[in-house]
Amino acid sequence: MSDINTLKTELTNAIEAANDLKALDDVRVSALGKKGAVTALMKTLGGMSPEERQEQGPLLNALKDEIAALISAQETALKKQELDQRLSSETIDITLTARPEQAGKIHPLSQTIDELISIFGAMGFSVAEGPDIEDDWHNFTALNFPPGHPAREMQDTFFLPEDESETDPERAKKLLRTHTSSVQIRHMEEGEPPFKTICFGRTYRSDWDMTHTPMFHQMECLYIDKNVTMAHLKGCLTDFVRAFFKIDDLPVQFRPSFFPFVEPGAEVDIGYYKQGEGIKLGKAPEGQEQKWMEILGAGMVHSNVLKNCGIDPEQYQGFAFGCGIERITMLKYGIPDLRTFFESDTRWLDHYGFSPLNRPNSATGQ
Ligand code: PHE
Q1: Closest Cα to residue 352, out of 128, 107, 147?
Q2: CA of 218, closest atom in ligand 1
Q3: Cα 259 to ligand 1 centre (Å)
């Protein structure tokens, strides 16, 4: 009993005398550490008779708790003291001019993708994804490009080394996808109709000039159901381009065209006219020539494509279209050179990018 009291007085004094955290920790180790005085006393419990232990046990436990509490209180007091000292000795020079703030900007491509998601989301489409590294089956064969067909040469493909672990030659042949139409195939192979999806992604072709880069982005739209017709395609596309360019009477024109994976196929043009040195999208005013520019490829999904994905073309049909995302971004925001999109020049981004807190047409903007 007197041992406990003496030890308690000693330790209490030592804790109070500890005037920095290091000294306090030394006291903690000397009391509660493996070889500490309190720990040593606790060890004597083992050699006591049951009656003695019943009496001493609670006393020792109380001592241990009390010392731990005192140490913790002293620690808090020391930390506060330290902070008070720093606060009174350190000063901040508020006359120094602030460093300029580097606010980031949203890349025009991200902006366009968000706008497209909100336009197509409102029409009930959801977003699908697929890999950049594709095989010959998904990029060509399933899309009704027969092997050796000249249409394969329309897209200057980057081929990759074959995957030797694949037994099926069409799946062994790897390449960088030349269009996002491959995502249509994956989506139809994996799911059950109806399908109503859009997808965005990088696409690759061996090309380089002011309007072509070896990597660019496409958007693909796919709608397959029991009663989908060309009229739905025209309606959906017209609504989309008018909403995107924010021109309610933007003229839209469909020209017959060939893509192996659609029948009938079309190229879609939007109207513009000359204004001064430049051009303006929209209906030409009276007396001015209406001009047209191609912006995307579209059509009714070919029955062979549906069959290749295990879908019965007698029951289901629908449309697809694909569009270069940079192309429509350049047109909407007046960006002249495609290559600048990927140069990561922060001056360019500062000029053409969007403030994250004030974005047109998106969830965070007006
Ligand atoms: N995949 C075509 C291209 O990249 C575009 C397209 C998509 C055309 C869907 C028709 C239907 O040129």
Answers
A1: 107
A2: 4
A3: 7
Q: Is the CB of 320 within 6 Å of ligand 1?
A: yes
Q: Which fold has domain 108-352?
A: BirA Bifunctional Protein; domain 2 (3.30.930)
State whether residue 283 is helix, strand or coil: coil
C-alpha 54: how far from its chain's center? 64
- Are 194 and 285 in contact by the 8 Å Cβ rule? The answer is no
How confident is the prediction along the chain (366 residues), in pLDDT tens digits per residue?
A: 567 889 999 999 999 999 999 999 999 999 999 999 999 988 998 899 999 989 889 999 999 999 999 999 999 999 999 999 999 999 888 888 888 887 889 999 999 999 999 999 999 999 999 999 999 999 999 999 988 877 677 678 999 999 999 999 889 999 999 999 999 999 999 999 999 999 999 999 998 887 889 999 999 999 999 999 999 999 999 999 999 999 999 999 999 999 999 999 999 999 999 998 889 999 999 999 999 999 999 999 999 999 999 999 999 999 999 999 999 999 999 998 999 999 999 999 999 999 988 888 654 444
Owner of token pair 């509660």: 32
Q: Which atom of ligand 1 is nearest to the CA of 297?
A: 8
CA neighbor of 135 nearest in space, from 125, 123, 145: 145
Angle, alpha carbons 64-69-75 (nearest 5°): 130
Query: Is 297 near ligand 1, meaning CB less than 6 Å away?
Result: yes
Tokens encoding 353: 């990018």
Domain residue spans of the chain: 2-89, 108-352
| Helix 50-89 vs helix 21-32: crossing angle, to nearest 10 | 170
Fill in the DSSP letter of residue 207.
Answer: -
CA–centroid distance, residue 298 to ligand 1 (Å) = 6
For residue 191, the CA-to-ligand 1 centroid distance in Å is 21
Q: Among 184, 176, 185, 160, which Cα is nearest to 215's?
A: 176
Question: What distance in Å separates the CA atoms of residue 310 and residue 306, rounded to the nearest whole number?
Answer: 6
Sign of the dihedral through C-alpha 337, 342, 347, 353: positive
